[in-house]
Amino acid sequence: MTAPVNSYGLLESRFRRLATLQEAAGMLHWDMATVMPDGGRSARAEQLATIEVICHEVLTAPETADLLDSAEMGKAGLNDWQRANLAEMRRTHTHATALDAQMVEAMSRAVTACEAVWRVARPKGDFAAVFPLLSEVLNLTRQSAAARAEKLGCSPYEALMDRFEPGAREAEIDAVFADYGAFLPEFLGRVLEHQARLPKLVEPKGPFPQAVQKDLAKRIMAQLGFDFHHGRLDESLHPFCGGVPEDVRITTRYSEDEFVQSLMGVIHETGHALYERNLPQDWRLQPVGQARGMAIHESQSLLMEMQACRSGAFCKYLSRVLSETFPNNDAAFAPENLRRLYSRVQPGFIRVEADEVTYPAHVILRYRLEQALIRGDLQLADVPAAWNEGFKKLLGLDVPSDREGCLQDIHWYDGAFGYFPCYSLGAMTAAQFFEAACKAKPEIPAEIEQGKFATLQGWLNANVHGLGSSLSTPEIIAKATGRPLETAVFKRHLERRYLN
Amino acid sequence: MTAPVNSYGLLESRFRRLATLQEAAGMLHWDMATVMPDGGRSARAEQLATIEVICHEVLTAPETADLLDSAEMGKAGLNDWQRANLAEMRRTHTHATALDAQMVEAMSRAVTACEAVWRVARPKGDFAAVFPLLSEVLNLTRQSAAARAEKLGCSPYEALMDRFEPGAREAEIDAVFADYGAFLPEFLGRVLEHQARLPKLVEPKGPFPQAVQKDLAKRIMAQLGFDFHHGRLDESLHPFCGGVPEDVRITTRYSEDEFVQSLMGVIHETGHALYERNLPQDWRLQPVGQARGMAIHESQSLLMEMQACRSGAFCKYLSRVLSETFPNNDAAFAPENLRRLYSRVQPGFIRVEADEVTYPAHVILRYRLEQALIRGDLQLADVPAAWNEGFKKLLGLDVPSDREGCLQDIHWYDGAFGYFPCYSLGAMTAAQFFEAACKAKPEIPAEIEQGKFATLQGWLNANVHGLGSSLSTPEIIAKATGRPLETAVFKRHLERRYLN
User: Fold this and answer.
1) Domain count across chain A
2) Which residue range is the domain that position A499 belongs to?
3) Which residue among A183, A307, B204, B387 is least packed, with the fewest CB closer than 10 Å?
């Protein structure tokens, strides 16, 4: 057996190669989503599959397991970062080896088939058409959840979440979501009443030329701290943040009829980008140097979008910028009108169009259905009815068809059970981070009013970005805010924003 | 030992992985040259180096050598394509294993250092500054040439050429170049005299907006047969053809003062692109499915640019297109004026700016100096004097400084000894291919006058593109044109174009 210290060093080399290949794959994914001609699809799929297979081979090679065992025996000789790195290596290894090759292949085939049928079934609202394939995906997901859970020592649903948000625990999320679920109906009623009493909103009038929108987006990105020497803004059908920390690539799409969706999308993705860009430089290409998980990642995009840039303070800055950018919209661009435009509450059926107040309801519904499906308490055939019933309870609306219901999101049809909670955990974490940052640095809101973000960025770098995966999500939140994650701050934020 | 037939199958899998990784690297190179922000450089270098190391590991693994031995023993059981594929595998393997890891690393380090100093030394014309580093590159090149030559069973200089143009032989190239070198001085004198007697040329007047140039380029590319469903046109500092056969990416750069350089560059790169796009689909990702070598590759770009698109026939078509594209240039865009603009002969010092007639002189000079350097017949310190003397003999001009002399090209400073002959072999091969195509399909010139290229493309696909590497370069030329490569056709072409 290799000596423990050497083992750890050899593991660093292995995981460095792994991360480098994953970065290469990340760039190829960016290209595929932004500039690749359609005819390049099959060649690209082969390139990505080959890189994935090589990564899997490196990770599951018997020597990797031996090195991990040996390095763990010599853990006492490592410093905190190294120990955290080793723990992340072990977690990655556990996930990679939890499923046998047969299961991985079966899942990959099931998911590909199911997603293709879902694309046709969704616009028709035809759940029955995708049912047999989704049923297969769900069966395999249950089996793989059980296999992962055994290795990770957690519940099967937690094992699924662990792929996106390591260490996520159902009991904690149950409590947080129960609290918000109880708060929402009455609060939503008050918000809608309050909104109805306000003067009529003035809508900005277009057209808003794409080139002008792009310049505006880049100007705002630069204000937020995005460094174009280390990144790009491009267009894609579905906006995303990709690339690598030295070369972060975000995307958006433009409609010339209105600019808010694109601009807020850019701000959102910039939040993700700044997290990636400011991960600990010394730990580049090591597991401990990666982003902590998707709940923290979402917290960074939502902090930027929801906490900082849909605020009254930012709307004062934005009002000036917009008046310089798009002529003849003075009334619409008045700061208070902007603030209200960017914080309009309107319950609806579609998650991705939901406002800040009702968004968690969409997530809570999916989370509870996922839990029940994985536990086996809910039959797949009963999902549409359960969805509609749950939606009525949470938001008081009757879902007109499965198209606006359980067919709307790609996640289940793509095998991504366990992802949904990250969105709302992120929103709540964002509120808690932002409040803590403003408490520690009271000048932040006044700076935001001037379009300045350096102090906020400094706090985020010190308390979140620079930690990588050296601490767990609960540890990061507790260290940065002095408390575990709770709904109180998020609710306070909503009350302040939506009832004043 | 694995059974021969199985060995061959296993080799196909190995080389498929290798080619797929190289395609991924190719896309990352494209990205680096076109869209990557500067700050992404070091991360990208690491991605590319990692992929290269993995390819090298696959290729030099002991099992690969065993499989090759075993498959060669069972060669009789393979068909022609498989046998040719196996031979290409062996050639690739021989190159990869000819140098030990120490030599590869020393060369990589020497070349990186030398190229960096050359970038500073060139504008100053300071050969002495780069001399010690180039001396190191040359020493290592001599050693590696000897090592490769031993394995390949050829001369050291041939071993260097073999990296770019497999199987190239000095005796054949010597003969071809001697013939052209003897022909040139007197011919050039006649061309210049003839040109001087013609009426004054009318230069097109700009500005020529970049967006309009880009649309024009795409229109012409489509006429030539470029399929935008399987490729792109972008901008980069140095134009190139990259990507993969399903997704061929060519680049150009624009100056708003004039459009000819960019347009002819696009046509040139489209020639490369069509070769890549039409390689044998059944042999994708196998060595035998790749382009034959750089001489054939250059022949495809030069056939399109020099033979087809600088012709009088194409100028008739182009005249109509240009008049629709750029206003107020009717006299300049007259077909005969265009033809003369695109075939102006003007001896000069810089290879990349040279016309079709004098270009081979630049290549012949470099080829002879490279041979002498590798053989040891010429000392590096004597290169500037030898350059200037050779240049005077071939083109009758006195080189004013090493900036316009032996410092102008990156090749030597980058370790690419043996590449230069490909350019002129390509030009001569292009003439021979084009003449054979027009003989086989006499309608080609009339079609080109209409901007139509389908018949020409059909001939090229059948006689060149679709063969991949299944035949050697001399075999491809002989089969397609009925003769070995000779200067006669090229000289005939020049006489027809430049003395009429």
Assistant:
1) 2
2) 157-500
3) A183
